Amino acid sequence: MGMLPDFKTKFIGIRYHYMQYYTQLATDQTQFSHNYYNTVEAWTGWNIGRKWQVLAFVPYYYNKQMDDDGASSKSGLGDITILANYQLLHTRTTSEHNNSVEQSLWIGAGVKLPTGTFKLDVTDPATTIADINAQIGTGSTDFLLNAMHHFRVNQFGVNTSANYKINTKNRSDYKYGNKFTGTSIAYYRIRVGGIAIAPNAGVIYEHTEQNTFDKASVQFTGGYAVSGLAGVEFTFNKIAIGFNVQKAFSQHYAGGQTKMEFRSMAHVTLAL
Asked: Are 197 and 236 in contact (CB under 8 A)?
């Protein structure tokens, strides 16, 4: 999820995600694929009282694939995700040196609905993992467990989150691997006139289990990546604008066949 905007009651906004991957089959190096994933996502959050929070994400995908057979693209509404979080801890103190210290811990769960399309013959020998990853949806109802911790001393803070996604099989008896994501982002907020500027940097760890088809593991799926993140957030009154770039410095996907080349995110969000 990255850094959530500061909001008292609710927020609504638009995020744009870009991801670029390259795949080359180890068994036949003439078969390759450049994959470009573009997502425009509406996201919103509501605080219900002091302890509860609901978040929703509605993505629209435009995926482009350029491979040894030519170019193709897919677009459409993706899988909608809804999360509910409970605030387990919140403290705010002032130290003897007049430092303001605040921390909070949220835990929650959610569901990803199969609103996107999954149209692929997974029994076709010509189907590659790049084809499977380029689908608009997974075709399955999936479940999420997550935790978010925020620690701040004056204008310096650290956001840490962990998310585990539990996937189920779709109608084609295909199941994407369960995925764990851990993120820690440090920021420092600076006031310039009426604008709050928060440069930030962090690290992301992702681990994906192997996909399965008819309960058997699918070869050359799953893997891990450790990525660095750098970005900046601007807040003016109730409007937040931000972006970041992400680059993997250690990864091993699909038996080493797939490489994550670049990712980025930008957003415009309004606190209500």
From this structure: no
Could you list the beta-strand ranges (E) of 133-257: 142-153, 156-166, 174-175, 179-188, 190-192, 195-208, 212-213, 216-217, 223-236, 239-253
Residue 129 backbone dihedrals phi, psi, to 5 degrees: -65, -30
Tokens of 177: 């691997």
pTM for this predicted structure = 0.91
C-beta separation of 45 from 18 below 8 A: no
The backbone region for 126, taken as left when phi is positive above 0, alpha when psi lies in -120 to 50, beta otherwise, is alpha
Residue type at position 19:
M
Poorest-confidence range of 3-17, 41-55, 82-96, 158-172? 3-17
Q: What is the pLDDT of residue 121?
A: 77
Do the Cβ atoms of 236 and 6 come closer than 8 Å? no
Model confidence at 17, pLDDT cuts 50, 70, 90, reads very high
9 φ, ψ to 5°?
A: -115, -60
Say what the pLDDT of residue 119 is.
82
pLDDT of residue 249 exceeding 90: yes
Show the domains of the chain with their CATH numbers. Answer: 10-271 (2.40.128.130)
- Lookup: tokens for 262: 């670049």
pLDDT of residue 127: 72
Assess contact for 260 and 19: CB atoms under 8 A: yes
Residues 6 or more apart whose CB falls under 8 angstroms from that of 218 comprise 129, 210, 211, 212
Two tokens at 164?
């585990």
Q: In what order do the strands lie in the sheet with 216-217?
A: 174-175, 212-213, 216-217
Round the average pLDDT of the chain to a whole number and report it. Answer: 91
